[in-house]
Every structure is written in structure tokens, then in C-alpha cells.
Amino acid sequence: MAGLELLSDQGYRLDGRKATELRKVQARMGVFAQADGSAYLEQGNTKALAVVYGPHEMRGSRGRTLHDRALINCQYSMATFSTAERKRRPHGDRKSTEMSLHLKQTFEAAVMTQLYPRSQIDIYVKILQSDGGNYSTCVNAATLAVIDAGIPMRDYVCACTVGFVDETPLADLCYAEESGGVSSLALALLPRGGQIALLQMDARLHQDHLETLIEAAMTACKGVSKVLDEVVRQHLQEGSVLTGE
Amino acid sequence: MAVDMRLPTIRKTVSLSVDAFDRKDLVVPGDVITSDTGFMRGHGTYVDEDNLTASVAGEVQRVDKLICVRPLKTRFNGEVGDVVVGRITEVQQKRWKVETNSRLDSVLLLSSVNLPGGELRRRSAEDELTMREYLQEGDLISAEVQSVFSDGALSLHTRSLKYGKLGQGVLVQLSPSLIKRQKTHFHNLPCGASIILGNNGFVWLYPTPGQQEEEAGGFYTSLEPVSLSDREVISRLRNCLLALSAHKVLLYDTSVLYCYESSLQHQVKDILKPEVMEEIVMLTQQKLLEQEG
């Protein structure tokens, strides 16, 4: 490990959190009037904006129409100013394409697409500031946007990244930890049923540790889901009061 | 020219009544509504291991044994008889595709429009070729929902002289849930403009027409210049609609008219300022309450 002590002897991490502690999550729903659904979510210093259009008629390539369910179309992009070094291409590179695919898989597991045959649901997510855990922040923001659009979902999808350092799982990694050579794992969970929507790990880890790591990720996701739940309920109350019904 | 600029502030909303908080009938996706199997599953719900579970965030509505969850904001779910305002997106064989804020594009069949020349005209192959002369891509129409297909797409018709192509006016796109269902959605407001409150959330504002040429069958569009005073009234109405929708007030002829009246002391462009908006909406709600009882 390159000189950085990711977990101190006292059990504190680089940014002063405990091993299982999440970063502060703040979110708002319905930030745009034009889109069907939108949300803004901050997870520590990682900030994401998600917009949902649809379900609507297939636009562009008609050939992709699915006759028994809706097509989910995701686009992940990072603002050019989101990272320490300015990015050249906000979207369309390998990494973003892969991320778009992951998002699509995640939401196909949660959204009840069979209710909307022949239509299309667009989910656009943009990272405004990147400080680790981009995938999970995107998933959490997009969940809120989908709920805001009134699209039926089985449950919330909550995501979290966890890393493994000194035999201890660390929840919700920040950029310094992610780049510090930690073997990290991203997990998207439907918290109520405990079903996994997506699990991704591309680092080496002893298989004995995998279970504890997944366990830690699930706990972290459930923590995120509580915060999202609060945000949605707050939004719901504000909205329903006003329609006065 | 002076430009009005201000710092971002938290949006405030008019008339928050405290008792409406902590309502029990609000659910979020994944919430179990009931584990009793005697209920029927409606929109916005699904069955998960014998539990009736919500799939959208909204309020629970119970009609006898049927449980539905109605989301706060959603696309237009058309029903037969709804008045809609839509835009032509495509001209196909014997049909037009119309964008109506629904989850699929609606269909307007050539056989369900009134062509110029009377009710009983036969539709020939020639009509099919000249469809684009009646309605082309980008045109706005008002129509009524004739039927709903199994996949949720709507079939429209314009078989009445009040429906048809829209000429000069202003389109305002709002949330469909804000439009109050009424006997009529066409209103000639006494302030000098007319309004079509489409059930799909599209609202059309236009100068009140004079005597119309009946033979045109709804495809006649007047290109006469609209007077400045009419345009001012329409602009004011548009801003009033935006103000009402920002504060989630139900839209119908009375609420729009009251809002128009309470906005008269302000300039048209000022109506969109948050504090003016708030004041106008407050006055409107007061008037509506007085009128009710």
C-alpha cells in the first residue's frame, strides 16, 4: 500500500469515518419541470443528477422495440469538470459505455417493464463531481428519478461500494480509498426482499472474504435505502398537500 | 434593458396545512399495503408472496375491493371521451400518429376525421395521398379519445366541429393531474380569449374566434393578424397557468379566470416572479374558497 494508511489502528478511515459508516447522503426529487422525473443526489462529495423521460414511444431505432415490455435506455456521463483532471469526452468512452450497461441491467431488474409494451424509458445520469462510488451514486439518484416519474418499480434500488482492508470491510469508499489499491465491490440491492440487482467486482479477493464483504455491502445498501425512503416520503407529503385532495 | 436576477432560494409553497402531514395513505414502492388476500390488485400495485405491495409512490385509493396507488406525477392515462390536445409526429397510411403525452403515440385514423365536404363523403385512395394537406408533421390538433387499445395506445377522433386543427395560439404543457375533469373543456373566457384544457395536460390558448366557416370541417386555420390586446391577454393567461401549476392548483375555467383577475394589477412579465406568483395564487385560492361556500 502506497504509504497511505487506509484504516488507522483506532479504526478510523482517511476521512475520519468508521469502517461501516456511510458518507452523508442528501437528495432532492423533481428538480426539473420539463422531464418526467428527475433527482439530484449527493453522497459525500460525489454529486449526481438523474433525469428520466418516459415511458414514451420508441424514438430513433424502431428496430429495438420489445413487444412484451419497455426498453430501458441508460446514458451515463461525467461532466468535464467532475474530476481533478479535466475530462475530454463527457460520455461515449469505454468506461461510460460499460457504466451505462450496468445501470441498464440494474434497472431492468427493478422496473416493471412488462407493463409498458412497445415503449421506451430513458434514464440519463450525469456525475457533476466525482469522489468515488460513481456507480452507486448514479443508481441511487436514478432510483429517485424513476420514482418521481411515477414508473412502477418492485422496490427501491440502492447501491453501495465496499472495499476490503486489513480483514475489515469498508463501506461507501471515497476516491482516495478507491484509488489506494483496495479491492472493491459494487452492489445494487432491492432492500426489502434482499435481492441483488447487480454485483460487480474486478479486483482480487480471497473467496473466504467474499461473503463478509457482500454482507457488509448489503447492510450499507439498507442504510442508503433508509435515507432514500425519507426523501421520497418528504417529497410525497409536500406534493400531496398541494393538490389538496 | 434591465434584467431581473436573483440568488437561488428554496421554493416555498402556498397554504401548507399541518393536518395533511403524517398521512397514512401515502406509500412508496415496496410498501406492503395489505396482506389480506381478499383485495383486488389495481394500478400501481403488485402481488409479492401474497402481500399486496405498492410499486409507485403515491396515495392509496380504495374502491370496494380494488386497491390502486395513484402516483403524484405520471404520464397521461387516456380514457374514452377525454379531450386531448396533441401534435402530429408522423403521417402513415390511413393514419396520423399524434404525440399526446401518453406512454405511446396516439393514432388518428383517416376514417375518424371530418374531411372538408360534409359528413357522408367517401374516403378514396386520393384522400390517402393528400393526407399531408390536411395535417402534416408538427401540426397541433384537438381531439377526443375514441377508444383505448390493449397496449394502452389511444385512438382519437375529430368527428365534431369543435375538434380539428389548431391555428394561432399558445400551447402550455402541464402535468395531466392538474386538469380537473369537467363536462366541457372548451371555454370562451370573458377576458377575451379561449382556452382548451386538454385532459393530457396540454392547454391551448387562442383568440376567441368570430363566425367560423363551417365547410372547412375543422381544417380551416385563420392567418389573420391577432391584435395586440388579444396577444396580451393570451400571454397573461399563459403566465397565470404557469403560476397555478407551480403551486399545484387544479385547473378549470373558474380557477383560471380568478387567477387572471387577480393578476391584473401586475404587468404580464412580472407574473412569473416567485413572490408575485405566490400573491396571485393566494388571492385565487381565496376567491375559490369564497365561491365554494
UniProtKB/TrEMBL annotation, chain A:
Coiled-coil annotation reads none
Please state which protein family the record places this protein in.
Belongs to the RNase PH family.
Task: Tell me the InterPro entries matching this sequence.
Answer: ExoRNase_PH_dom1 (IPR001247), ExoRNase_PH_dom2 (IPR015847), ExoRNase_PH_dom2_sf (IPR036345), PNPase/RNase_PH_dom_sf (IPR027408), Ribosomal_Su5_D2-typ_SF (IPR020568), RNase_PH (IPR050080)
- Binding partners and assembly: Component of the RNA exosome core complex (Exo-9), composed of EXOSC1, EXOSC2, EXOSC3, EXOSC4, EXOSC5, EXOSC6, EXOSC7, EXOSC8 and EXOSC9; within the complex interacts with EXOSC2, EXOSC7 and EXOSC9. The catalytically inactive RNA exosome core complex (Exo-9) associates with the catalytic subunit EXOSC10/RRP6. Exo-9 may associate with DIS3 to form the nucleolar exosome complex, or DIS3L to form the cytoplasmic exosome complex.
Q: Which GO terms describe its cellular component?
A: cytoplasmic exosome (RNase complex); nuclear exosome (RNase complex); nucleolus; nucleoplasm
Among Pfam families, the record links this protein to: RNase_PH (PF01138), RNase_PH_C (PF03725)
Entry's Gene Ontology molecular function annotations: RNA binding
Ranges where the Exoribonuclease phosphorolytic domain occurs: 21-152, 155-219
Protein name from the UniProt record: Exosome complex component RRP41
* Annotated compartments: Cytoplasm; Nucleus, Nucleolus; Nucleus, Nucleoplasm
Keyword line: Acetylation, Cytoplasm, Exosome, Nucleus, RNA-binding, rRNA processing
Q: Does the keyword Membrane apply?
A: no
Q: GO terms for biological process?
A: nuclear mRNA surveillance; poly(A)-dependent snoRNA 3'-end processing; rRNA catabolic process; rRNA processing; U4 snRNA 3'-end processing
TrEMBL record, chain B:
**What GO biological process terms are annotated to this protein in UniProt?**
CUT catabolic process; exonucleolytic trimming to generate mature 3'-end of 5.8S rRNA from tricistronic rRNA transcript (SSU-rRNA, 5.8S rRNA, LSU-rRNA); neural retina development; nuclear polyadenylation-dependent rRNA catabolic process; poly(A)-dependent snoRNA 3'-end processing; ribonucleotide metabolic process; spinal cord development; TRAMP-dependent tRNA surveillance pathway
Q: Where is the Exosome complex component N-terminal domain?
A: 26-63
What is the protein's name according to its record?
Exosome complex component RRP4
Q: Which residues form the RRP4 S1 domain?
A: 75-147
Q: Which GO terms describe its cellular component?
A: cytoplasmic exosome (RNase complex); nuclear exosome (RNase complex); nucleolus
Q: Which UniProt keywords apply?
A: Cytoplasm, Exosome, Nucleus, Phosphoprotein, RNA-binding, rRNA processing
Q: Pfam families attached here?
A: ECR1_N, KH_6, S1_RRP4
- What binding partners and quaternary form does the record give? Component of the RNA exosome core complex (Exo-9), composed of EXOSC1, EXOSC2, EXOSC3, EXOSC4, EXOSC5, EXOSC6, EXOSC7, EXOSC8 and EXOSC9; within the complex interacts with EXOSC4 and EXOSC7. The catalytically inactive RNA exosome core complex (Exo-9) associates with the catalytic subunit EXOSC10/RRP6. Exo-9 may associate with DIS3 to form the nucleolar exosome complex, or DIS3L to form the cytoplasmic exosome complex. Exo-9 is formed by a hexameric base ring consisting of the heterodimers EXOSC4-EXOSC9, EXOSC5-EXOSC8 and EXOSC6-EXOSC7, and a cap ring consisting of EXOSC1, EXOSC2 and EXOSC3.
Q: Where in the cell is it found?
A: Cytoplasm; Nucleus, Nucleolus
K Homology domain: from which residue to which, for each copy?
169-208
Family as reported in the entry's similarity comment? Belongs to the RRP4 family.
Top-rank taxon: Eukaryota
Q: What is its main location?
A: cytoplasm
GO molecular function of the protein, one example?
RNA binding
* The keyword Cytoplasm appears for this protein: yes
